[in-house]
Structure formats: structure tokens, C-alpha cells
Protein 1
Amino acid sequence: MAIAAAPAATAQGQMMASVNQKITSSFTSLSSKVHLRPQKQILVTHASNASASGGSTENAAAVSVTETSSTSPTPRSSRVKRHTISVYVGDESGIINRIAGVFARRGYNIESLAVGLNKDKALFTIVVSGTEKVLQQVVEQLNKLVNVLKVEDLSKEPQVERELMLIKLNANSSTKGEILRLVDIFRAKIVDISEHSLTIEVTGDPGKMAAVLRNVRKFGIKELARTGKIALRREKMGETAPFWKFSAASYPDLEESIPVDAISNNKTPPSIEKPCNGTLNNVSKGDVYPVELDDDFYLNQVLDAHWGVLHDADSSGFQSHTLSMLVNDSPGVLNLVTGVISRKGYNIQSLAVGPAEIEGVSCITTVVPGTDETIGKLVQQFHKLVEVHEVQDMTHFPFAERELMLIKVAVNATARRNVLDIANIFRAKPVDVSDHTITLELTGDFDKMIALQKLLEAYGICEVARTGRVALVRESGVDSRVLRGFSLPT
């Protein structure tokens, strides 16, 4: 029996070897057709289990397919990263809704938005996450909109980025001391204090904002209002800088540091063309704003000091109302909110969008002019939106308001000292300096922004970026606007 079983086992082994050879050849032909990735291999192995029992041998064959692969690095163009987009437009009714609609239709969620508005122009600073390829498509779509003068992705170059945050914290006698120490460490400011709360103001880059929130969250955050991020490019040194010739036109002594023929051959910056019929034929590749050396440069190209002028109550009750809304942090919500405002014919004077104190919720702070009756109807329309959690009109409550501005000024050595003296009076901070410019950061109310910008216009303003208003109700009940009308106690 053992002699008879040996030929049978040999025949079975030959048969299994033939089957394995056919399977191997079929996998080889299949891989050549489907073009497998070079980093993946298909291994065909023959596993035989032999067990000896009673002098008999049984051969079992199995085919196992193993796919080995190594993770390939993700191409740079397909990596998701955060982008800061600057959009400079000729202001018109509904422009905010149209720009927000470009992102909403493509499923992009706007993380933060800061808008500086004039009667005839506006600057949007938008922070959104996505791949470079898809973001490039969004930029191209924005360029197709009417009255859009310039769209840039500021993330590709060194920049000064800032945002403003107001935080209302729970505080008692045992925790106020520790909160004040943190305020000093992060160079923050106290803007309101009551028996059970503290409201602090913080400015800085997004990393500083995250660090502040991580340290104060243990005390309990009652309310949070953040502006969107604003950014200006850091100015380069020397005659190759975008604003060199603009500064040299104001300060002739700057021209002496470079050969005269270097600037005499080209009177206009090479990356800028003169406007035709009030529009820009070509945009500057190095500036947030296009720059020209005409006498009316400040009026036509830079947002002037009177943008977004707020209205006090008149005899008819018409005034600017400050609205705060808590909405879901999801794509298309901003488009819904601004759509309600534009459809009802209201004008937006200020808009700031940023994260709220609750994860997954954003806070929208906007300023809309109207009477108490008309704004009340607008608030009712907001409440009908599914994505809106809460709407508050803070106009008739004492509230702390703040705005943030970055302003780049043309200077020489002498003018730089004068500008720094003015900045010291307004408690503004220098955040970037070159041999021909200086960039200042200022926080405060609307009137403070106007006063500083008007003083600096004489030196030559290169570019300006500004957030909208953010506000929180004062728990102390002190209204600083009312106090301005009374004389100080003796």
C-alpha cells in the first residue's frame, strides 16, 4: 500500500505545481494589463501542510496573495493647507454675498473673514483651507466677478498677520489675580471688569490666539468674539521692493542710495500699468494694493480714513446697529446670512467672522444701519434660518467695541522717528520695518482708527488692512459713549 501511494502522491504534487504555474502566469498577465503601481508587488506562494500519520502523507496546497506597499509622499499640490486670500473690489450692493457664494458653491468653508468697506471700494481678507490646485480655481472664479480688481494668495510670501479677540471670562476674587498675570504675559488688555467677570482684548497671530484660549479656558469662557485675520506683506529691502519708488517719490533722499539711472529709465513701477477708464488693466505682483504715483493716489487706490462711517441716531431714529450672531461653522452659512441682508436692501457697514467659544460654532459681528423697527424685522428673518442659533442687537446696551488695523507708511530716517512718536501717542505698535517703510498695528474704536490714519496721510500711506468691528456687552453696565458727554469729576 505504501509503494502504491508514492506514485499517487507524486502525481498529485505535479498537478499542484502545474496549477500554481498557471495562477502565477495569470497574475503576471493581469498585472501587465492593469498597470500596477511600481511600489506594489503581488506574491504568490505555495503553502503545503504535511502531516505524517500511519505512514501516509497528505499534501495540501494553498495560494495566498500578499500585497506589499510603501506609502508614497503626498504631492505638494494635493496637500490641504490654510490659505489667506486678499480680494480688492469696487464696492457695490451685494458684493459680500457674491464673494461668499463663490466659496459656498464649491463646498469651501470660510474659517474667518475680515472686510474693510468704503463707499466705492472694499478689501476682503479670507482664510480658507484647501489644496493649491482647487484654491487656484477659486481665485480664477473670483477674478471673473464684476468689479473685482485684484485677488491674491498672501500665504505664498512672508507676511505680517494679526487678528483681534475679545474674551469674557468668569472671574471671582480667587481667580482674578491669576487671570491678570496671564494678561500681562500675553500683553493683553482689560477692557471691562465686573464682580463676576473680566473682558480682555488680545491681538496677535493665530498661534498666539490658540495659546491664550488654551490657558484661559479653565476659568470658563462666557463669550468670545474674534475678527478674521488680516495680513500685509513684509516689505523687502532696497530698490527691488514693491513700494521703493513710491517712497522715493515722497522722500528724494532715498534715491541717493541707489544709482540715478536705475530709476530714471522707468518712472512707473514695472508691475503696474496705468488705469484706463477707472479700472486696472494689470495688477501689481508685489503689493496688496496697486500703487501709482499720481496725485490722487490716496483717493483712488487706498481705503481712506472715512470708510464705513457709522451713523448716530437722528430725529427719525436711523442709526447704525451692531448685531452679533452665533451660527453653525459649515460651508454656505455666510452666504445665507449676507443673502438675507442684500435681499432686504440693507447696507453692511462692517463685517467680521471668526470662531466662537463653542466648537463648531462661528460668531458673525456686523454693523447695519436702520431704525429699531426695520432692524427688528431683519433679526426676525435671521431667526428663521436653520443654521442660526442666536441673534443679538447690542446697540442699546453698553458694549465694548474694538477694531484692528495694519497700516504701512512710507518713511525715510527722519520721518520714521516722527511716525513712531505718533504711534506712541495712539499706543500703536511697529510690527515691520524696512529702509523705506514702517508697518504699524493699532487697535481701538472707530474714531481712533480715523484719527491715526488721517495723521499718517501726510507721510504717504502705502497700504492698509482693517478688520470689521467686534463687540461684547459690558457686564459692568458702564457705557463709555455716554460718559464722553459729561465733564470729569473734580
Protein 2
Amino acid sequence: MDQAELTTEQVLSRDIPWETYMSTKLISSTSLQLLRRYDHRSESHRAQLLDDDGPSYVRVFVRVLRDIFKEDTVEYVLALIDEMLAANPKRGRLFHDSTLADEDTYEPFLSETRHTHMTGFCIEYPVICFSNWVLNKLNTLVYVHSDSYQLLWKGNWFIQEKSCKILALIVSVRPKNQNGVVSNGDASDGKKPFTTIDDVLIGLVKWLCEQLKKPFHPTRGVPTAINCLSTLLKEPVVRSSFVQADGVKLLVPLISPASTQQSIQLLYETCLCIWLLSYYEPAIEYLATSRTLPRLIDVVKSSTKEKVVRVIVLTLKNLMSKGTLGAQMVDLQLPQVVQSLKAQAWSDEDLLEALNSLEEGLKDNIKKLSSFDMYKQEVLLGHLDWSPMHKDPIFWRENITNFEENDFQIPRVLITILDTSSDPRTLAVACYDISQFIQHHPAGRIIVTDLKAKERVMKLMNHENAEVTKNALLCIQRLFLGAKYASFLQV
């Protein structure tokens, strides 16, 4: 059977030759007793065993994964651990029990070297000499090779997926006082240092990014990676490593409207990742310059899933005060989207509160965006867009005298833009703003005529872009008609 399509139930139906492993010293007699007591028992019986002596079973599972390479057995033990944690995720704390202080519980998943013991010997690589009988036995139990063997990287898909899920869970439930230097205790007596928490987290991030780039499984690789990331991005080390690995850009294409239940869950967990990253400044820098914001707004417009809407609204609320993101949200018509969302019947009070908070924040942004200083900065940079102040009558009424500053500097720059810019949007906005100056300033028509704007605007009436010709026509009409009649013209 294709390992990628294996199920936990199929794996757990196997009979593992534990007695043979003991006879070749791959497991101890104590481990055999524990495994026989646990193996193929009812869920309630296993639960009782874990309640009574959970750390002992964890120790046995970890040692089997460390010492035995036989794929069927590795899959089996991973399935046992996964089943145990799925029934009660709090059991992940068993891996951090004080009685396991001498056990590196992460080693089988990430260690560069794995070894085992047999008949008192440590199996070294390469194997130099064993009797034919021992070699035959060994070949039925383990794969002997000279490469390092990391479950997270070198197993089949079943092994990789289970390893990722197990690692993510046991890391997420570790004691809060664990300092990140070691996993469960301190290595001593000159032994090899234990796998650190940072080692585990960085190793997981590397594997997760690889799944997002080139999924090991065509349909489950990406969902598995996103599911684990949505848990792990709470960790500062994971956020830092993920951003350094350029992982944020791998999330953006996944933010798109979803219809099926599976795709909705993937979308939700992707947005959850973005929300977690919205608390991390280096990630925000990337979010601000990518297509993240328009994609989030496109999704929230059409989504009917409350949990998806909630996490996006909370993300937008976090991002609103960061740099120019608030201005971008206004440009993307988010205030209107929020109004539409508020009109819908949501049962989640936190969502309604977040929508109200987002709405207030957007109003504040609109006020800031309508200031003349912001407008002046935009004009002087020479890159114009339809930001709110351009079509806000209040802005023009309250700021029209500011256009007289520095010998009408802003009208002069707007007219210069008509000659120098090749961007259709900039040309259209410049024509519109000149028409607004003509309409609202008492001497607007005379000033614009003296600055020789008429010829430049008329040239643009033949522009290939419809938006440019439309606003050039409006400007010429206001220039010829004067303020008395220009107020009747509509865009």
C-alpha cells in the first residue's frame, strides 16, 4: 500500500514482534512488559494505564523510535502516540515529566544520528562484522545504513506527518518555565547535549516551509503545514525563523475565497497564521508591501463563515495602525465593507466589538488622510491615487486657502505633473484636483489660466486612457465655465 495513503487505523491493526526485539536486546524486558500491557487494548484500558504511569510509556515509545529503524514499527509507535494525544492533547505534558529528565524526547525526530543497542554492542556505522544469524535477524528488524535518520525528514509521508503533528503538540504544551536550552533536563556526565527547544522549533519551521514550497504529499502537505504553523507561530522563535526563511510570501497565495469545508478550514488556519504574524514587526513590513491586504479584504467581503470573518477583522484591526496600512485599507474601500459586515446577523459578540473598533479606527484614518499635509506630501512625490481627500468636498472647502502657500506651489506642481508623468492614474487625479481648485478657489480659473494649464489639459483629452480623458474633460469644462456654473458639473 502507498505509505502516503496509510491511515492510523490500518497501522494500529498490525502485530509487532516485541518479543523478538527483546531477544535481540533492542528493547528491555521492562519495555516489553509495558508494551504488552498497552498494545491492542481498549481505549479505556490504555487511558487508565496512561493516568497511572504515563511517563513510563512515553519513555518506551521514545526509545523504540530512537533504537529501532524498521519502518512498520516506527509507523506503529507514531500511530500509538498520535492516538494517545488525539484522545487528550494534555497528555503532551507527559513528554515533559520530571521523571524523563534524563531522556531526550525530541532526539528521534530531529537528531542527526540514531543508534541502537544489541547484545551489549552499540551498532556502529558501517557494520563491520556480525554473525550471519545476527545479520539476518537485524535485517528483519531495522534498516542499517550510514546516513543520519531523521523521522521528520527521511521517513515516508505517514512518518513525516505524524512526527510533525506530535512535535508541534508536545512543544506547545511544554512547561512555561522551560528556558529553551534543553528539552526535559540537562545533559550531564559528558553526554551529548540534548536537543534544545530552539532546535526543535527551527527544525519544524524548515520542514513546514519546505512543505509549502514543494509538498511531499499532493493534497495533505500544505494543510498539514498550515495546521502546525497556526499553533507554532505563537512562539517568538518560530515567528523569527519563519520570516527569515521568507515564509510569509508562501502564505499569501492561500488567502482566497473558499467553498468546500476543507478549503474553508485551510483558509481559516492561513488567516490565523497572518493574525499571529500581525504581532511581529518584521512580518508586518512584508505584509505591508505584498498583496496580503487586498486578499484579506476580498475574502472578508464574501465569506459567510463567522470564524474566518472574525480572524480577518482582528488581523485588520491589528494592522490598521502600522505604517501606511490604515491608508491602504481606506483606499481598498474597507469602511464600506465594514458597514456591510455590521449589517449582517453575527452571533459572536467579540466579532461585533471588533467591527466597531475597526470602524472607529478607519474613521480616524480618514481624518488623518484628509489633512493638507498628507495631500501635499502625495502631490510633491508626484505619484497620485484616489485617496479619500481627493473627492472629499469638506477637504477642499477647509483647505483651499492652503493652496496659496509658496506662491501657489501645489497648483504649479499639479500642472507640471501633466507634462512629466506617464502614469494614467496620476494624470487623471491631477486633472481632477485642478478642476477642484478651479471650483473652490475664488480666483481658481484665473490662476490656472495664468499658469498655462489649459493647453496641457487639452492635450490629455485625446489620451488613450478613458479615466484620463474623462477627468481632463471635466477640468476643461470648469476652466471655461468658471466657478458660477462649474459647481453643477458632476464627475
